[in-house]
Amino acid sequence: MMNFGMDYCLDNPQALQGSIQDEFGIDNADFNFLYTAFAIPNIIMPFFGGLLIDTLGVRKVGVIFSLLIIIGQGIVTFSAFTKSYLIMVIGRVIFGLGGDTLLVVQACLISKWFMSGKLSMAMALAMGVSTFGSSVNSILSPIINDWGGGELWIPLFCGCIVCIFSFICLIVINFLDLKADKQEEDYIIKSEPSERFSFQHLKELGCLFYLLLILISVLDAAFYSFMANANSLLVSRFGFDQTGAGQFVAIVYATGLVFCPLFGWITDRYGNRVYSFITSCLIFTLAHIFICYLKDATLGITNTSVLVALYSVGIHDSIYSAVMWPSVSIIVEDSVMGSAYGIVTSLANILAAVFPIAIGCIHDETINVKNGYFWTEAFLAIIGYVSLLISIWIWFEDKKTGSVLQTKTEPFEELVQVPPSPALLARHHVFPMYRRRRMVYLKKKGYGPGVPLSADVATLKDLDSSHDGLNMSYESSKA
Hints:
By secondary structure, the chain is mostly helical. Helix content is 76%, strand content 0%.
């Protein structure tokens, strides 16, 4: 729930598009700039936020950026009182300073706790809950706006309250994480300090990471550009009113909430991530081609066939959240985890700053063709096709690296077939990826303080050779 408030408020403009445009007297290009204002600081902030995570720690960074989100949403709410578009833009910029960096914090926390066995499902659940925030916003914000007599500050202030709730959730998470860190110090051997981050590490990430970087960034920017204008699309082309459009747009997020955990579980159990990439890109492309050629509403009759496309986009987003985003932590080292997610988020926001402006301009220049939403959808379909080609490239590149993205995630219990020895404890201390699950598993098996773990390398080798059925040797684990 730590990102619930951020996602709820991120799409406040989408749910209140008509009211915002009427209140401030702005066109589609200026409206879309509210999303660009959010994206601009996130071009660099997630990267530097990732560096801060790798240096200051994930808990401190999470608190700092969560507070920025609350402050930014407060300024956005204040703009509704002053009726100042400029103040709203400033609020969105400050909101953006904390926005996507908090997503990096969440990804690092999940990777820290669930690296083995259930990583995809854990991230899918977290992304599903965040998506649920967007869904709740799409449904409730127009209703609250109507209930408040069209006073724009009321639904925006409700967003502030939701952000404060998410901040409280983050504080609870930090407390649990700090407590677990202190407990873990009693159950693991002390090791050499981990290698500090260096920009040299970024050069070693490899082609596979950078292809995945491009794929995730392009699809993320395209998805949110579509969602930013979804209300207007349903109203102007398919005969919905603003409240009804908000409720139907929520179908995309609700679909993600249902299918994210399912796709995460399937990925953890069977692997085949690249096939999921290809499927997701194909669904996204076909959905926007379908919207392009779908008939507009006539004689006031709502065309509900667009629901097929909304469900399809929701399934695409489910695969993105459950499969693509967690894949980053599979192909990068722990020492650059925060920085890697920061790079991905930064590039996504570079494109997220450009795509809404491009779509707004295309809409305004082609307003006579299906109310401006034929060529905007064609643009998104082209983006989907390019992403499909990148996914196929990733497939070939992954084969060169041993098909790491295609393999299923092995839980720690499956890797250990016998009761752990001191050698096993020492070996798994070399693998921080099993950190949380390792400590809990060993504690259940009765290993804790008092177990002699000060053996030298030769003794560890002897202990290792005395236990049959272990899947990893000391030398391979150290490597």
